[in-house]
Design goal:
It comes from Modestobacter italicus (strain DSM 44449 / CECT 9708 / BC 501). This protein is of the alpha+beta class. It is 32% helix and 17% strand. Among the domains are: 5-204, Heat Shock Protein 90 (2-Layer Sandwich), CATH 3.30.565; 225-379, no CATH class; 775-877, no CATH class; 879-997, no CATH class; 1036-1132, no CATH class.
């Protein structure tokens, strides 16, 4: 290769003559290497290869190969020539001045190689040249004039000013190769640059068809396939990318380049390229940082996600676009090209992503370019319409829904002109659409737009379904087409037809029923959410318009209007709804025709021929027109209040019950509550109306008993059950042949026999409804009934059972404790006797002192005396005391049988003493059987002993139920087993008494009995009886009781105790005659008592004083003592 020595000589001469020039060249080269071309090595190599291909008139091929620490760039095309060598060795003197199609313009790009190499070389088929920092430094050092400057620069020299000859040739198939021995540390930088080289570079270098990147033997090929229309396909290895390319070429007016450098003024031609990747025709916006390519990458930022390649003039740093007329002109051309690019792309919402975003510009040029692009896009028709029949839309004539969906857009096509598809109206694109000038339409505008629109019901159904998720308040005025052709201005209150609704018969009601087609499918759900109501019959009945029509129907009829169709429509609706009677009380105001030819409220009419019509007084209620009634559903008539049985009324508060005697019922049930009870909380109440109109109670009561349970049930007031209105009204009214049920008694009410007459025979359900009193407690629950009972007790024409009499006055006193009672004129002193002068027995031993007219106090003498305004026995007897002298006084513990009695009572021994009087008298010389005190006084009889001991032991009421009910005052009184033990102890005393009183009777054991009583002891003692044995003779009437008494006495050791082994029946157990029929059966039939064994039952022939009888032998075991006794009880054979 020729040695470019002449070039070196001229440069060195220049530097020698002017060391300042050396300095200028060194600084200029350093500026290029460290500034404008610091990272443009591969781009400049590719650009030079593209220019060589352009000069050769063919598409070029570049191979970049990194092997070890050497980078080689071999390219096809025109080889290096002398002009090229001179251009390489000069600053800003390109050999491509006249090559208008070339990329390089300044002649400085090769300086980029100095960023990585100090020894670059260019070998070609025609010329080769190399540059060397070391050799240049040596040549400069040989010039004395430059020594000082070289020293000041630390040996740094302008490498590319002195070319040296080079040997070698480019690889086969290539015209030129640039060889770059890499300086230490640069290899990694070059390797990274090669890895990041993108095929998109070929868009700016169309003269290059292929770039091979070879690193350590691995080849990656970047290629640009021949253009296919507007698309170019770039490959990177196996990956291919299609780019949609729009180019605009032309020539700038000369005057625009007047301010540009002279050599640039001749380059007036331009080509502006926009390129955007596409996939299946759909654009794929570029991501990451984009820059303006002028034509190779600059540092000018670009916010548009596309590749812009344009010959913008660059500033002195070769990295930024210089402002000026040329830049402005090229910006306008680029804006036109960008608008053309969008218009050429398929209509896809992704296009909105490549529309400039206002406010996001990264630099002045970017902002100007973005504004220019927006101006073109606003004025061009490129937006797709939702209606396929429309042409492309300009943004200023397009409309985007605020909350778009495909369904909403489809429904509104033809209603909102210029409507964009839903995908083009997304909220995420709102800023872009706003920048383009697209108008947004909210739901309020949509609602306004569909007002007055005449569309079929199916269209409305589609619209409603599309608005399912829209805000409810914004759709409040959404029109709804009605079935009758009208339009409702808002869904609220519109009725949605149900399949079971007889809509064709509801015309007279003027209902707003939606067009069924408009409310089909999902639309029904949407309308319901917006306030429409399902038009089931029940929902239609709830419509305020229906109620208003019903409530005004009677006035309309009075004004002469024909309300018959309305009545039929309402009854049809009620029948379809299955409304229950009383469920909608206002239905009772429906005007219906009566049998007099007029109109009356349904609730005041009786169905002709109904059971109710037969029991009410004539004329008390109107009668429905028979002809009209025959044509209507009976259940519907009942539901609107027409009566065929008694009607029910419900209320939450008793003050709201408009029925007969409601206030009296409230007072009566409140009187049943405890005096200290707080005001009750009333539950829902059910009452029956028109009871006061009944004339035939025999037929009315079964009707009432068949009413729903709610009408019959009691009412719970704070835990106290009180009669419901119906039961109370019937019980307190003369419904049983002129008698009140509460003044009669239940058929099986034994306790009230004699005081009340029984109710007549009634069906069970009627009896349960009336619930006549069955016991005293039932009567006492009501104050009025209790006062009536008080009067009945004083009625001499009535009787009282002994059991009831014992406590009835005490119970009355408790029930009427808070009532001001007028004392009765007469009181009851015996089951069949009353008295107008009596006393209340408050101490049982005083009974002999006060006479026979004693009121049983039931354990409450004080309250009873206050109720009856009678004196107490203690008040009448005064300060009476014992006046007789005792025959003997012994301790209770010393009385025979006391130990067993104490054991029965559960005490160690019986406390206190007892004084036995032959005749016990008290003040006034009156005789008594016993008198409590210390000591207790008795007349010696077993009855007196038993009573005194029972009183002392605190178990009086358990031992003697006939003792006036008086309970002794000692504290800590015990009941239960202690009472049974007291009875046993009393039995021991009875045995002692029988020893001396062989003719004793049961009346003596049970004081107060006034009827004949059988003997407890036999009239004579047989000579052959075992010691301590005793015969007991009983009359026929008292046989069963005598056996019970005998058994009870035996269990309580009531006879003389004898060892069982020595006990022998009278007569050795034989009799003088055959046993009577039935004696043997006594062993199992009568005496099956715990601890008792009947060992025999044989005949006793009797004698002159004792008739023939059964002789029964009992063996009784006493657990406390472990003894056995034998008892003989003689019973008449005629039992």
């Amino acid at each position: 290769m020729p040695d470019p020595a002449e070039l070196r000589r001229r440069v060195l001469t220049t530097w020698t003559d002017s060391p300042a020039r050396f300095r200028e060249d060194a600084n200029a080269e350093e500026d290029l290497v460290l500034g404008g071309y610091r990272d443009r090595l591969l781009v400049e190599l590719a650009q030079n290869a593209a220019d060589a291909a352009t000069r050769a008139g063919d598409r070029g091929h570049l191979r970049l190969e990194l092997t070890g620490d050497v980078l080689r760039a071999a390219n096809t095309g025109a080889p290096l020539d002398d002009d090229g060598v001179q251009a390489l060795a000069s600053l800003r003197a390109s050999a491509k001045r006249d090559a208008g199609a070339t990329v390089g313009r300044f002649g400085v790009g090769f300086a980029a190689v100095l960023a990585v190499s100090d020894e670059p070389a260019v070998v070609s088929t025609d010329r080769s040249v190399r540059f060397s920092a070391a050799e240049t430094r040596a040549a400069v050092a040989a010039v004395p004039a430059l020594a000082d400057e070289l020293a000041r620069r630390g040996g740094a020299v302008p490498v590319l000013r002195l070319p040296f000859p080079a040997d070698g040739a480019p690889p086969a198939g290539f015209a030129t190769e640039v060889v770059l021995p890499l300086r230490p540390g640069a290899t990694g930088q070059v390797r990274a640059a090669l890895a990041g080289l993108d095929a998109g570079l070929l868009l700016a270098l169309p003269a290059l068809a292929r770039v091979d990147v070879v690193v350590d033997g691995a080849v990656r090929t970047l290629s640009s396939l021949p253009a296919q229309g507007a698309d170019r396909v770039l490959t990177d290895g196996e990956r291919a990318t299609t780019w949609r390319v729009v180019q605009r070429a032309g020539e700038l007016p000369a005057e625009l380049l007047a301010d540009r450098p002279v050599e640039e003024r001749d380059r007036r031609g331009y080509t502006v390229t926009w390129a955007l990747p596409v996939a299946d025709g759909v654009p794929v916006p570029l991501t990451g940082r984009q820059v303006v390519h002028a034509p190779t990458p600059s540092d000018e930022p670009l916010s548009l996600p596309a590749r812009l390649i344009a010959p913008f003039p660059l500033g002195p740093d070769r990295r930024h676009v210089a402002p000026g007329p040329v830049t402005d002109a090229l910006v306008a051309v680029a804006a036109d090209g960008y608008a053309e690019l969008l218009a050429a792309l398929p209509a896809d919402p992704v296009l909105l992503q490549i529309v400039p975003r206002t406010g996001l510009a990264a630099a002045e040029l970017d902002a100007v370019l973005g504004g220019a692009v927006l101006d073109r896009l606003r004025g061009s028709a490129w937006l797709p319409p939702a209606d396929p029949e429309e042409a492309l839309l300009r943004p200023d004539r397009a409309v985007a829904l605020d909350d778009p969906t495909d369904e909403r857009v489809a429904a509104l096509v033809g209603v909102l002109p210029g409507l964009l598809p839903a995908a083009w109206s997304r909220r995420s694109d709102a800023a872009v659409l706003g920048a383009l000038g697209v108008r947004r339409a909210g739901l309020a505008e949509v609602v306004e737009a569909v007002r007055g629109v005449q569309r079929p019901g199916a269209w409305w159904a589609g619209l409603y379904a599309a608005l399912e998720t829209a805000d409810r308040e914004e759709l409040a005025a959404l029109p709804v087409p009605l079935a009758d052709g009208r339009t409702a201005h808002g869904p609220a209150g519109v009725l949605l037809a149900d399949a079971s609704l007889p809509a064709d018969r509801l015309g007279p009601l003027g209902l707003r029923i939606a067009d069924p087609a408009a409310a089909a499918g999902p639309a029904r759900r949407v309308l319901e959410r917006l306030g429409a109501r399902p038009a089931t019959a029940a929902a239609v009945l709830a419509d305020p318009g229906v109620r208003a029509a019903v409530e005004s129907s009677l006035d309309e009829a009075d004004d002469g209007a024909d309300v018959g169709p309305l009545a039929v429509a309402v009854l049809t609706l009620v029948a379809a709804a299955g409304t229950a009677p009383g469920e909608l009380p206002w239905l009772a105001e429906l005007a219906l025709p009566d049998d007099d030819g007029g109109w009356a409220p349904a609730g005041e009419l009786v169905r002709p021929g109904s059971p109710l019509a037969d029991v009410l007084a004539p004329g008390s209620l109107g009668v429905l027109d028979p002809g009209f009634a025959a044509g209507q559903d009976g259940a519907a008539l009942r539901a609107v209040g027409v009566l065929d049985t008694f009607a029910l009324l419900t209320a939450e508060d008793p003050d709201d019950l408009d029925v007969d005697r409601a206030e009296e019922w409230v007072d009566a049930v409140l009187d049943r509550l405890p005096a200290d009870a707080p005001p009750p909380v009333w539950p829902p109440l059910t009452a029956v109306r028109d009871l006061e109109l009944v004339r035939d109670w025999d037929r009315a009561l079964p009707l009432l008993a068949a009413l729903p349970v709610a009408a019959l049930a009691d009412v719970d007031l704070g835990g106290t059950a009180v009669p419901g209105y119906l039961r109370w009204w019937l019980r307190t009214s003369p419904v049983l042949h002129g008698a009140r049920p509460d003044r009669l008694r239940a058929p099986d009410a034994v306790e009230l026999q004699g005081l009340y007459d029984p109710v007549p025979e009634l069906p069970a359900d009627v009896l349960a409804l009336l619930r006549p009193p069955a016991a005293v407690a039932d009567v006492l629950a009501d104050v009025e009934d209790a006062l009536d009972l008080l009067d009945r007790l004083g009625d001499p024409g009535r009787t009282v059972g002994p059991a009831a009499l014992r406590t009835v006055y005490a119970d009355l006193a408790a029930a009427l404790a808070d009532v001001d009672v007028e004392p009765p004129r007469r009181v009851r002193v015996a089951p069949d006797r009353v008295s107008d002068e009596a006393v209340v027995l408050d101490a049982p031993w005083l009974q002999p002192l006060v006479g026979p007219d004693v009121v049983p106090a039931g354990g409450a003498p004080g309250p009873v005396a206050d109720l009856l305004d009678l004196p107490l026995a203690s008040e009448q007897a005064g300060r009476a005391r014992v006046t007789s002298r005792a025959a003997r006084t012994v301790r209770w513990a010393e009385v025979p049988g006391a130990g067993l009695a104490a054991a029965r009572l559960g005490v160690p021994e019986l406390p206190g003493s007892v004084a036995v009087h032959p005749t016990l008298t008290v003040t006034g010389g009156r005789t008594v059987a016993w008198w409590p005190g210390e000591p207790d006084a008795v007349d010696g009889s077993p009855a007196a002993l038993g009573r005194a001991l029972a009183w002392r032991s605190g178990v009086w009421s358990l031992h003697h139920p006939k003792g006036g009910g008086v309970r002794p005052p000692p504290a800590g009184r015990r009941a239960g087993c202690r009472g049974r033990r007291a009875a046993a102890a009393a039995g021991v005393l009875t045995a002692l008494w029988c020893t001396s009183q062989p003719r004793a009777t049961l009346a003596q054991l049970v004081p107060g009995r006034r009827t004949a009583a059988p003997a407890l002891c036999s009239r004579r003692v047989p000579e052959d009886r075992p010691r301590g044995g005793r015969r007991m003779r009983h009359g026929t009437r008292w046989t069963a009781r005598a056996l019970g008494v005998a058994a009870a006495l035996a269990l309580g050791a009531a006879v003389v105790v004898a060892p069982a082994a020595s006990a022998t029946p009278p007569g050795g157990g034989t009799g003088g005659s055959a046993p009577p029929v039935g004696c043997a059966e006594l062993t199992t039939a009568r005496l099956a008592l715990p601890g008792t064994t009947v060992t025999s039952a044989v005949s006793d022939p009797g004698d002159a004083t004792t008739p023939a009888s059964c002789r029964v032998t009992l063996t009784v075991t006493h657990p406390p003592a472990g003894d056995a006794v034998t008892v003989w009880v003689h019973l008449p054979t005629d039992t």
